Amino acid sequence: MALLEFTESGIYCPIADIYIDPWRPVERALITHGHSDHARPGHQHYACHHDSVNILRFRLGQEISVTGYGYGETFLHRGVRFSFHPAGHIIGSAQIRVEYQGEVWVASGDYKLEDDGLAPAYEPVKCHAFITECTFGLPVYKWPDPATVHQEINQWWENNRKAGKVSILSGYSLGKAQRLLHHLDASIGPVFTHGAIENMNEVLRESGVVLPDTRRVTADINKKEYKGGLVLAPPSAIGSAWQKKFQPFSEGIASGWMALRGARRRRSVDRGFILSDHVDWPGVNTAIRETGAQKIITTHGYTSIFTKWLLEQGYQASAESTQFEGELNEMSEADNSEKAA
Ligand SMILES: [Zn+2]
Ligand SMILES: [Zn+2]
Question: Which of 44, 73, 113, 214 has CA atoms 20 to 30 A from the CA of 304?
Fold first, then answer.
């Protein structure tokens, strides 16, 4: 019996009778992070990193049963040892380490190797089997230095301010928005937030996350007050009537997909910034090597091409179909938090 297996409900540890990021309601669920394709409603009991507890309550309901753990803290269930380790993806994100009789598996959830200054940086965890996403598992995806991208964003904002335009910058409401906010140069002008993002900011601030000052976009703000400002908005707000009040404006989007030619045009925005919370091609290869694992299971993204590549490298690799959606889902973000605006 494998330590972890893939069932129609999700990644399953049969010895402990526990699931990781299950997509069908189960009794016990360990959750890697708060994005809606990983943290789904309906489970009887949730466990996650401390910093994900309030995110889960906010998204799934205050009444859910949820236990928080620190990074590296271990707990036993039916003789299986579990622990959460930094994944560097978003605040509260964790890889889940599973150990039984000397055998170690790691389910990484979503992760990236760059330190974004907000979520604790990814830490490689030694294991025999590594379950990995490969959202951007093709050589064409190689991220530019994030510090340079943040400079470009601030420069774009400054240029817009000088041209008398409001800057609308879009990124998904949990993770990307706070990462962008953390690196904005507040000396350029005021920062405003769409309700879906501000609601998430409030949840995170209550959990002790320090974020720069923001002002929620409301109907009673005078149009003049937006002048020279930057508005953080979720991708779903692009092209919506909600934006009219900011005219004239320039619109930018921050996503890994901006590395693809034509992606910016298809989203009909003025600027695309290549910034992702998922590993790129060099990153996923580095991560796999550093785990020391021989057995690699790919779950979402370019699974078939990437698995073929791993087999050629001598790994014992396979692809499993899951209901994780990668950054595609996070770009459209058709979940409830969006409707709170
Ligand atoms: Zn995610
Ligand atoms: Zn995901």
Answer: 113
Alpha-carbon span 304 to 251, nearest angstrom: 35
Q: How far is the CA of 112 from the centre of ligand 1 (A)?
A: 10
Q: How far is the CA of 110 from the centre of ligand 1 (A)?
A: 5
Q: Which pair of structure tokens corresponds to residue 125?
A: 């965890």
CA 175 to ligand 1 center in whole angstroms:
8
Ligand nearest to the CA of 91: 1
212-216 long-range contacts (CB < 8 A, ≥24 apart) are 212/181, 212/182, 212/184, 212/186, 213/186, 214/181, 215/190, 215/191, 216/192
Domains of the chain with bracketed CATH: 5-141+278-330 (3.60.15.10), 146-273 (3.40.50)
> Hunting for tokens 């507890």 — which residue is that?
53
What proportion of the chain, given as a percentage, has pLDDT over 70? 95
Backbone angles phi, psi at 230, to 5 degrees: -120, 135
How far apart CA 314 and CA 154 sit, in angstroms, is: 44
Residues pairing with 310 in the sheet: none
Ligand number with the minimum distance to the CA of 277: 1
pLDDT attached to residue 260: 86
- 124-163 tens-digit pLDDT: 999 999 999 999 999 999 999 999 999 999 999 999 999 9
Q: 184 C-alpha to center of ligand 2: Å?
A: 25
Determine the distance separating the centroid of ligand 2 and the alpha carbon of 228, expressed in angstroms: 34
Phi, psi of 240 (to 5 degrees): -90, 165
- pLDDT at position 335 is 35
CA of 76 to the centre of ligand 2 (A): 26
pLDDT tens column, 275-311: 999 999 999 999 999 999 999 999 988 999 999 999 9
The Å distance, Cα 186 to ligand 2 centre, comes to: 30
